[in-house]
Amino acid sequence: MATANRKPLYLDFEKPLVDLQERIERIRRLAEENGVDVSDQIQQLEERSNQLRQEVYGGLSAVQRLQVARHPRRPSTLDYINAMTDDWLELHGDRRGGDDPAIVGGVASLDGMPVVILGHQKGRDTKDNVARNFGMATPGGYRKAMRLMEHADRFGMPIITFIDTPGAWAGVDAERLGQGEAIAYNLREMFRLNVPILCTIIGEGGSGGALGIGVGDWLMMFEHSVYTVASPEACASILWRDAGKAAQAAEALKITARDLKDLGILDEILSEPLGGAHSNPLETAETLKQAIVRALEQLLSLSPQARRDRRYQKFRKIGQFTEGPIESLATSVS
């Protein structure tokens, strides 16, 4: 198959890094073919590559972090489950007529502890993404998630959710099947569950589609993940009728992990390997596993009532506003 039109697996701002790495590989290959020792030059170029990578990833803008969060090679829910757990058994169906592949879930053993894990699942390529509906869950997906969470609560197993979706499916059939009701039901019911609920945004956390499995005692995000009430493209289209202003919208929406930590919404930021989670998935999975085990130890030390009260107060405190003249608000949006 021809590869001339295949989309490159690197982001626009990564091109200098890719070019430098290709240059290093080319010099190494030519040196091997001609029996020349260029180890000193290679070492200098690799040091320059590491320095450049630190410079690039140390100063990413909000929209660039959004690109990293959407990277096609970024580890998915099933990648983390397979890397972190034992005895994984996926459970299917909402017991109301369907099984949504955009949300996966089941039981597993995490360091010997039985847990229920569920999360959004995107695809690796176009065919897989179509089958997974690009991680956009249907009402049946959220009902399946709630069924699994009720199972966890019944048997005293902690709940771990992985969030990675541009938003809930917004098709006509989704509305007909009760998308809003399904998400709202999950929001209400997750507050009453007795077991610990730990939520991690592993990629893109979009709108109510993320919140449908995002009510928990402890919220973590990877440093290059995003969490937003609406995608920057949608926000720009609404405010300025120009999706091309997505970068401006991304800054205004405060979608990054650091923004959300400063706003008091996020409990913990998880570091990623230099170059993003996709550059070293196994290291990323180990970071996530250690953070989950650490958080669960704290949550399990609390009584069910204390956890429910803490969960309620956590979400009651979200949201800040300032009063000011309408003219200044209009100016800030224009």
TrEMBL record:
- Note whether Ligase occurs among the keywords: yes
Which InterPro entries would you find in this protein's record? Acetyl_CoA_COase_a_su, ClpP/crotonase-like_dom_sf, COA_CT_C
A Pfam family (short name) is ACCA
Q: Does the keyword ATP-binding apply?
A: yes
Could you name the domain of life of the organism this protein comes from? Bacteria
Which HAMAP family would you find in this protein's record? AcetylCoA_CT_alpha
Q: Which NCBIfam families match?
A: accA (TIGR00513), AccA_sub (NF041504), PRK05724.1 (NF004344)
| Annotated function | Component of the acetyl coenzyme A carboxylase (ACC) complex. First, biotin carboxylase catalyzes the carboxylation of biotin on its carrier protein (BCCP) and then the CO(2) group is transferred by the carboxyltransferase to acetyl-CoA to form malonyl-CoA.
Q: Which protein is depicted?
A: Acetyl-coenzyme A carboxylase carboxyl transferase subunit alpha
Q: Which gene encodes it?
A: accA
